[in-house]
Amino acid sequence: MAPPQGPRAPLEFGGPLGAAALLLLLPATMFHLLLAARSGPARLLGPPASLPGLEALWSPRALLLWLSWLGLQAALYLLPARKVAEGQELKDKSRLRYPINGFQALVLTALLVGLGVSAGLPLGALPEMLLPLAFVATLTAFIFSLFLYMKAQVAPVSALAPGGNSGNPIYDFFLGRELNPRICFFDFKYFCELRPGLIGWVLINLALLVKEAELRGSPSLAMWLVNGFQLLYVGDALWHEEAVLTTMDITHDGFGFMLAFGDIAWVPFTYSLQAQFLLRHPQPLGLPMASAICLINGLETISTATGRKLLVSGWWGMVRHPNYLGDLIMALAWSLPCGVSHLLPYFYLLYFTALLVHREARDERQCLQKYGLAWQEYCRRVPYRIMPYIY
């Protein structure tokens, strides 16, 4: 007799067929963007000018470099942390413990890279290896996701995620069956969420800046801005690493291909698109770069049955998800240094808009279940979801 299954959530992403399509579409999109950024036309829409052969994708050197990178970040994860935080309460009423040392990993990585460059490490050669690195990262994501799927077969029901428990192997492989897969105290999802991909994104950006300096004598202002904006974002995320413990990725979603590929492949190789574009398509900086989000004090609240509060003034009195609005403003600021002659650098803004609209719909369902009538009252008083007077 098969073991009893936990409660099953409604299927997302179009169910098994949608999951199967995304298994192919996500890597294909990433490689399309990499090829478009390095091509002359830099077209977001339409096929690339040429397709790379296997010799351009496979490189033992890239594999060694990628595995070394993962090993380094895993070693930094295991170092003593300035703090150990507890996660949200699980189905079995337990709480997992997480090391808060992501910012420490970023600083130590920067020191090691600096020492390497001073010793002659050719950081400017990294941009030429992006295709084979992305290829081995994609292979890693598929193999790792298969390991996670097999591991989940022997996990207790209480350890399964609500969404990756459909019984369809393709859908569950994509979404992830187990909520917090671990070996001893090494949490795979938490490690991948903010470490190898996010810090790798910063390193790729820096390598592109160094390469531009080698080609043109000095980095452009646009390249400096993109590097600065995105370094600030990554540094802030790692400094406030504990906040990730309350996100849907950690508390709700299983760890399967969707998050594994997104964390270790999509983030570093797609989020660095603006810097990739600027390396081969230098742009005069003619648009002002300014965006700011103000924090409002003395917020009016509505009490809920759980004793928590819902914010209904300040930014939260204008839209129900002002943090998403801030993300979109930030995404626009990252793209504007690339000018307006090409659509390609604005892919992140377009993609992030679609992602946040989808995520907002998931948030709405969970908030209604969690807060009940208080959420309905909040929606009545704050009718706009992300963009005031638009959506």
Automatic annotation (TrEMBL):
Enzyme Commission number: 1.3.1.70
Residue stretches spanning the membrane: 60-79, 100-123, 129-149, 254-273, 328-357
GO BP field: cholesterol biosynthetic process
Pfam families per the UniProt record, alphabetical: ERG4_ERG24
Keywords: Cholesterol biosynthesis, Cholesterol metabolism, Endoplasmic reticulum, Lipid biosynthesis, Lipid metabolism, Membrane, Oxidoreductase, Steroid biosynthesis, Steroid metabolism, Sterol biosynthesis, Sterol metabolism, Transmembrane, Transmembrane helix
Membrane topology of this protein: Multi-pass membrane protein
Pathway: Steroid biosynthesis; cholesterol biosynthesis
GO cellular component: endoplasmic reticulum membrane; nuclear inner membrane
GO molecular function: Delta14-sterol reductase activity
Catalysis: reaction(s): 4,4-dimethyl-8,14-cholestadien-3beta-ol + NADPH + H(+) = 4,4-dimethyl-5alpha-cholest-8-en-3beta-ol + NADP(+); 5alpha-cholest-8,14-dien-3beta-ol + NADPH + H(+) = 5alpha-cholest-8-en-3beta-ol + NADP(+); 4,4-dimethyl-5alpha-cholesta-8,24-dien-3beta-ol + NADP(+) = 4,4-dimethyl-5alpha-cholesta-8,14,24-trien-3beta-ol + NADPH + H(+)
Places the protein is found: Endomembrane system; Endoplasmic reticulum membrane; Microsome membrane
Gene3D superfamilies membership: 1.20.120.1630
InterPro entries associated with the record: ERG24_DHCR-like, Sterol_reductase_CS
Family: Belongs to the ERG4/ERG24 family.
Role, per record: Catalyzes the reduction of the C14-unsaturated bond of lanosterol, as part of the metabolic pathway leading to cholesterol biosynthesis.
Protein name (record): Delta(14)-sterol reductase TM7SF2
Organism: Piliocolobus tephrosceles (Ugandan red Colobus)
